[in-house]
Design brief:
The chain is of the alpha/beta class and 155 residues long. 39% of the residues lie in helices and 15% in strands.
Length: 155
């Protein structure tokens, strides 16, 4: 007789809460999702894209980031109005310059982990600025490292 594994208890409730939160952020932001393995494949295929690391420079990006990623700080709480106090003094124009003039280019935004919303803010703002192929990598640098994919450091 075959059995099916079930997960009961708090872990399932936490998984559900995180999944629903992520889904609602994606719906609100209007962007797409890319998995860790998909992003790795895109990098291996030299896909033309901009990868944005939204974590703090000193505490995270400088220590390790996805190969080729460019750092641009976004806050954890929803940032519906641009606030240079939350983006290390950088403006919408600075972000648009980083993303480049091609509004159809693929943009991948990540932060630390699924519950972190820095990447939501970065992806949502890319969409607001008119970019059409915007992806959020929800697992972030934590999932990337758990997959044993290579990272870079700032020297």
């Amino acid at each position: 007789m075959a059995t099916t594994g079930f997960c009961f208890g708090k872990k399932e409730l936490e998984t559900e809460a995180n999944a629903v939160k992520l889904l609602r952020e994606v719906e609100r932001g209007g962007y797409k999702i890319v998995t860790t393995d998909e992003l790795k494949a895109w990098i291996d295929q030299n896909k033309d894209m901009v990868i944005v690391d939204t974590m703090p420079y000193e505490k995270s990006y400088k220590k390790n980031h996805v190969k080729g990623a460019i750092q641009f700080l976004f806050p954890i709480p929803d940032m519906n109005t641009w606030d240079t106090g939350e983006t290390a003094g950088k403006t919408k124009e600075d972000y648009q310059k980083l993303l480049g003039p091609d509004k159809n280019k693929s943009i991948v935004v990540y932060c630390g982990f699924v519950k972190c919303t820095r990447s939501h803010n970065g992806a949502a703002w890319a969409k607001r600025l008119g970019y059409t192929n915007v992806y959020r990598h929800p697992g972030g640098i934590k999932a990337w490292k758990e997959a044993n994919y290579p990272t870079e450091k700032v020297k």
